[in-house]
Amino acid sequence: FSAIDVIRAKRDGRVLTDAQIDWVIDAYTRGVVADEQMAALAMAVYLNGMTAAETARWTRAMVASGERLALATDRPTVDKHSTGGVGDKITLPLAPLVAACGAAVPQLSGRGLGHTGGTLDKLESIPGFRASLSLAEISRQLDEVGAVVCAATPTLAPADRKLYALRDVTGTVESIPLIASSIMSKKIAEGADALVLDVKVGSGAFMKNYDSAHQLARALVDIGADHGLRVSALLTDMDTPLGRAVGNAVEVAEAVDVLRGGGPADVVELTVALAEEMVALAGLSADPRAVLASGAAYETWCRMIRAQGGDPDAPLPKAAHTHVVEAPADGVLTGLDAYAVGVAAWRLGAGRARKEDPVSAAAGVLCLAKPGEPVVAGQPLLELHTDRPDTVPAALAALADAVTVSDHAVDAAARPLLLT
Ligand code: URA
Questions:
Q1: How many CB atoms lie under 10 A from the CB of residue 322?
Q2: Which of 46, 179, 181, 223 is the best mutation target for the ligand 1 pocket, counting ligand atoms within 8 Å of the beta carbon and taking the most?
Q3: Which residues is 374 bridged to in the sheet?
Q4: CA–CA distance, 345 with 397 (Å, rounded to integer)
Q5: Is pLDDT at 208 greater than 70 in this prediction?
Q6: What's the complex ipTM?
Q7: Residue nearest to atom 8 of ligand 1 (CA)
Q8: What are the φ/ψ torsions at residue 222 (nearest 5 degrees)?
Q9: Whole-number pLDDT of residue 413
Q10: To bridge 419 with a disulfide, which of 45, 92, 141, 235 should be the other Cys (CB 3.0-4.6 Å)?
Q11: Which domains does the chain show, CATH number per domain?
């Protein structure tokens, strides 16, 4: 094979053969196909797409580039993947809840980049928490606690690790077959029997509209079926942040509120809806809402955090500086833009621009009002938290058009959380 022939084939709109796909992914992982050649191929895929069969084969080749975890546990294994949003801390209450329902939840997670936060960044705001675990530690914790939230080991889908970093700098991230194969190769390599996908739709998500999110969900579910994985997908709203907290420690605090029976209604509802899907796919009969109310999920959370070196009772970091944004007028808050709030939290230090950047545990935004709620002019709407007051002007600039107040409620405020 030659990389140039594979690039030309896709450039000219042809369907790649299984052998071409297997060869190019393997050769790229080994450094035989160069970055510039893979970048050209990724652009050709971006422009000309791939069939469902090509996408399935591409995913298979990426899984085969590394190892597939053999999870040693007697419980049924089930995982969740969210395509990413603003204030999306759902993994934090969800993993211990589903574990308390009887499943094993191996939640291999990532760090944040840009306006979306990363689950590991959030958890690392808990004093002592360790995100890097060995395979033996993951298996032991799955058996003993039922839930693990940790970093993916570099041995899982190494082809994707390399390709995703390349796509990030070559304008080739936003391709449904490439996104779907990237997500699913990691999830398949992780070895769970079942997977629930939370495909986000809206300003704060990858997929800005319902049709493209639906296409992505279809592609993800098809790949799962090709690998014998039980998969289902929910499409959920990401036009406004989930819950009231956006950042790291502030999101952990909100997740703990949910686990202790409180917390914002949207976070509770999405946690329970995803848990119901996961429990059903795992073949269990527990009722997640009742398990959450019983306090068992909170107990599992504490055991999970302790098992990973953290202290669930330790105070979380607090920002040195806060700044309040007030409501501009009397009326109903009809819009609070997820993307703008995500960028503001990032500017305040909660996120990173490059993979190597540090994040601030205490930085973030608290949304003191949510769409649909009445507000009066001058009332505090957003509370910005940061250790670096010099970041506040950039956060305020990001929020310039984020807030919409109308003199009467409009339909947008009533957009449902669950879109399917
Ligand atoms: N998340 C991934 O893991 N891969 C993509 O390509 C996009 C989002």
A1: 13
A2: 179
A3: 332
A4: 12
A5: yes
A6: 0.97
A7: 179
A8: -60, -40
A9: 46
A10: 235
A11: 3-49 (1.20.970.10), 78-307 (3.40.1030.10), 321-414 (3.90.1170.30)
- pLDDT greater than 70 at residue 407: yes
The angle at the Cα of 108, spanning 105 to 110, to the nearest 5 degrees, equals 140
Quote the CA–CA distance of 37 and 303 in Å, as a whole number. 47
The closest of 329, 59, 340 to 180, measured between CA atoms, is: 59
DSSP-derived secondary structure for 203-234: TTSSB-SHHHHHHHHHHHHHHHHHTT-EEEEE
Residue entry with tokens 């959370």: 301
Conformation bin of residue 378: beta by default, left when phi > 0, alpha when psi is -120 to 50: left
Residue nearest to atom 5 of ligand 1 (CA): 179
Q: Ligand 1 atom closest to Cα of 186?
A: 3
How far, in Å, CA of 344 to CA of 242, rounded?
Answer: 15
CA 416 to the chain's CA centroid: 20
- Distance (Å) from CA 164 to ligand 1 centroid: 7
Closest ligand 1 atom to Cα of 182:
4
